[in-house]
Amino acid sequence: MLVIRRDLVDAMVAHARRDHPDEACGVLAGPAGSDRPERFVPMTNAARSPTFYQFDSMEQLRLHRELEANDEVPVVIYHSHTATEAYPSRTDVNIAAEPDAHYVLVSTRDPEVHELRSYRIVDGVVTEEPVEIVESEPVDPAIERFMLSNTGPDDVPDCR
Length: 160
Fold this sequence. Notes:
Protein name: Mov34/MPN/PAD-1 family protein
Domain MPN: 2-125
Organism: Allokutzneria oryzae
Mean pLDDT: 90
Low-confidence stretches: 143-160
InterPro entries: JAB_dom_prok, JAMM/MPN+_dom, MPN, VirAsm_ModProt
Number of helices: 4
Number of strands: 8
Radius of gyration: 18 Å
Keywords: Hydrolase, Metal-binding, Metalloprotease, Protease, Zinc
Structural class: alpha/beta
């Protein structure tokens, strides 16, 4: 299951609408070893195509260096489909190179309503997964207990 904040969903959808009729693409980065998307990174579709996306190679190199420097990974790799449903094409499956990533597709074929779906793509096998959109990142219960246990009698816990 992909758990994702609403602001990140809104950013992906806005990017997809902005680049329409061409496909938009990008990454949501998160801490290495986690499955939490935290940072929106829109990329340039070097193909500038309504039916295909390709990360700009220089942007991709900069992104990988930045991820490494920040101890982050691409938790989500997203792109839009401008005239079809949000389901990976054969080309999407063939270029999927991050087995741990969630592949999110946003369909902008309807100008009023977007469709957003998430998949795992491993060794050419596509598996759809549920998406849970949350208003903010859930607080880890262990961290919340720590925060509550370290407050004084006049303190208000700073949980959210």
